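Example complex used in Figure S2.
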Amino acid sequence: MAAAPPILQLRNIVKSFGSLNAVDGVSLDIEEGELFTIVGPSGSGKTTLIRLLVGMDKPTAGDILLRGKRINDVPANKRPTCMVFQSLALFPHMSVGENVEYSAKCKGIGKKERRQRAAECLKLSHLPQSYYDKAVTQCSGGERQRVALARALAFNPEILFFDEPLSAIDYRLRKTLEKELKDIQRETGKTFVYITHSLEEAMVMSDRIGVMREGKLSQVGSPATIYTQPENRFVTEFMGEVNSLPVRLADDGKLHCETLDASFEPPAGMPPGFSRGVLIVRPENVAISDDAAPAGSENLIRGELFNEYLLGSRIQYQVRSGAMVFLIEELRADAVARLPGAEVTLSWQPGDSMVFPE
Amino acid sequence: MTEAAIETLTQEPERPRRKILPWKLSEGFVAALPIIILLFIGFIGPMALVLIYSFMPRGSFSIPESPSLENYVDIVEQDFYISFGWSLFLAFISVVILLIACYPLAVALRRVKGRRAHLLTLLIVAPLFVAENIRLQGWVLFFDKGGFLDGALKVVTGLETGSLVNNVPAIVFGICYIYLPFMLFPILLGLGNVPREAREAAYDLGGSRWRVFRDIELPLAMPGILIGSLLCFVISLGAFNEAKFLGKGVIVTVAQDIESAFTFGQNWPRGSALSVLMIVLAGSAVWLAMRRVNLDRMLGKR
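Predicted assembly (660 residues):
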């Protein structure tokens, strides 16, 4: 795959509404056959970006290249791409079959061939053939999801875009559909570009993830890279709950936290020229112990346990130390029974912490 | 708190169960009762009277006479088909013109957002606050010979329009002008049933603008379009003032025939028979259209 040129290239895309740049200089290459997810909080400009990519709106500046050809001015109905809308945008006055066949009808494909293609797409998206004549309005939420997917697949797009189509679906069904979507992507070998605000969803499905913030891409990389080597504080905090300590580089080479009046061993590979910023430690990297000074541990903090939550296979503790509250997670199987109010010692390996300048 | 106190607190307060009526009625029926009574007195009653009168002998002013079909025979034998024809023609042509005028206007209005939309709606509704015949007389003063248009044009350019009233186009203009809101607002409502994203999705799937209009927008907006057309058709079928003021007798509509039968003609049974025929005509138009519309769907119920 390395030698193949990217299917879609974005060159410094800007989209402004008045003085606001909803998309603010995004450059990105999307490879053929990958499932790329753009993830970001609401208002980060991801829907605006995808509307530019499908041709629903035109960028204020920058170029969109599809297989090396500039497509900025090609309208949506002339582009070989297709989108599954957040609202699904099914045609309520048509049957499931008519919805799925709509693109073929626009292309002027004959009835028999249309029907056959629709049958294939219904199968691909796990809908029974009997649904062909069913009214869209009679379908359940999950079924409508599948109809929207079948309709987009029937278009046979070069790139299939998804604008948070699963956001209104309940958790269990969402998990099933996420995996099915990934399977369909593998099976068809198509390029999927997916938008979501849920990093969890992005992690499950994606080959690569682009984290978006305030109209810019904060970081692009594989799910593993994004998780283990976040490039900035935003990405780190967007990944989930973390412990952030305001710190300053002291003369002795240690990181001093004034709030706690404690010093911590810095991780290797400190950003050059770092003087003050945040030290971030993930809850699962913090060890909790009843001993006052557990052996072989650095970065010790004493605190009082005041809350615990069961998160399925893991337990999350909240520990108060001075003016700060720490989050700690450990496997439920490894957990020792503790009572709220217990004095505990927290510690972490310097290598598990991250430092970002302010 | 003692246990007894808790018990009194948690107990449901006893509801007064006084019955308004000795038999059980649904709340909906009770709420609809005033309008039902009103409709019986003001609509069904007179309708029944008109129906009965239409079968009474010519010129009778009392009901218990032996029924006959002579009024209907008279209507068929005399030239009443001409006024029926004019009424149907006026209603039909007005609906066509209103459709062409209101659809683009409704599409444009839907794109306007916020305060400007309110202002525009207000401007469209505002004429309804002035009596219909006053507005029509205003147009007569505007279009007539020596009226505003004619006079102003003569002063400024020396050209004359002469009288632009007393003809059929003027009547059609009057009908379209008066009933524009009755077409516009149902269409607006109908367009509200067309999700923007459905149109975008059709466009994204390769549909041309025309296809999107024909396959998505028009069918989804159809209930509103049909309701508007029906409303305008039925009320312009009874057009009376427009023909009277702007037409000044150039043609006679059924509504005018009915009026003269009840007044100058002093022939109530004939007026009643004409009315019955009109109601049948309008009723069948409604029935034909309603077979195609699902009002529940239009009002958002599924």
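Residues 171-188 of chain A form the longest helix (18 residues). Helices of chain A lie at 46-54, 96-107, 111-124, 141-154, 171-188, 199-205, 223-228, 233-238.
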